[in-house]
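Researcher: Structure prediction, please.
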Amino acid sequence: MRTTITIFLALLTTMLYAKDYQVFGPQGGLAMTVTLPKDFNPDTDTCSMVILMHGIFASKDILPMPTIARKLAKAGIASIRFDFGGHWDSEGEMQQMTIEKEIADAMAIWRYAKSLPYVTRIGLLGHSQGGVVAAMTAGRIAASGDSIQPYSLALIAPGSVVKDACLHGKFFGAKFNPQDPPAYIKCFGIMKLGREYILTTQQLDIYGTASHYKGKVRLIHGSKDRIVPLSCSEDFKATYGNAADLIIVEGENHMIGLKTQRVANLVVDFFQ
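Model: Predicted structure follows.
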C-alpha cells in the first residue's frame, strides 16, 4: 500500500510540474515565452517577430529580455524569448552546454517561428554570448540558402571574447590549461562549464560565420561594460561593414541594468 501511494505521489508531482515544451534542442525541451501585441488576434492578424537570445548563465526572464519583449509588443512586433538548453526552465545541464548546441537551439526556435501563420518576417537579437549565437545563426541561415532570411539582426554587447577566454585559460575567474582543460571549470565559483564547451569554443569561426549574413545589423554596447570589451562590437561592425551601425550607450554596463529603457528603445526603433 505504501509503495502504491509513493508511486501515485510521484506521478502526481510529475503531472503538476511537467513543462509543455513545443520546441526541442540538443539537450531537450526549450522553455519559451511568446509575447504578442495588445489585442492581437493570431487567427486573423499578422506581424513581424523577433527571436530574443539571452547571454551565458542568464535567462529569458532576466534583463534586458522581458523589457525588450514588452517594448516590441507595444510597437506591434511579436517576440519569442527562450532559455537555452541547460539554462533555467529548459531541459539539460549547464555543464553540457556549448555554443554549437545553442546555435542548434536557436535554429529550432527559428523553424518554429517560421511555422507560425501570423508571422510575416523574423528578426534575431542576442545579448552577450547570445549575441554570438544570434550572429552565427544568421550567418548559417544565410549560407543555407533558406528562402526566408532574418530581416534584421541586433547584437547587444556580443560576447565574442569567449573564444579568447577559452584559448587563454581564463574564464569568469576560473583558470585552467587551455590545451588540456578539466572535465569542468567553475565560473563565479558555482556555475559549471564543461570541457567540451572550452575545446569547441576555441575552434569557432565566429566572424567568418557571421559574415554570410548580408542584412541590416544594429550593434549596441554600454560604455561601462567591464565584461565584454567594446572591441568585440567594433570587430562585428568591421565584419558587416556599411550594413551595420554601432551605438555606444553612455553609462550602461554589461547587464543592461542601468539604461534598460534606452537600450530597448534603440532595439524597437531598429526593428520597426
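Model: The chain is about 40% helix and 20% strand.
Researcher: Thanks, that helps.
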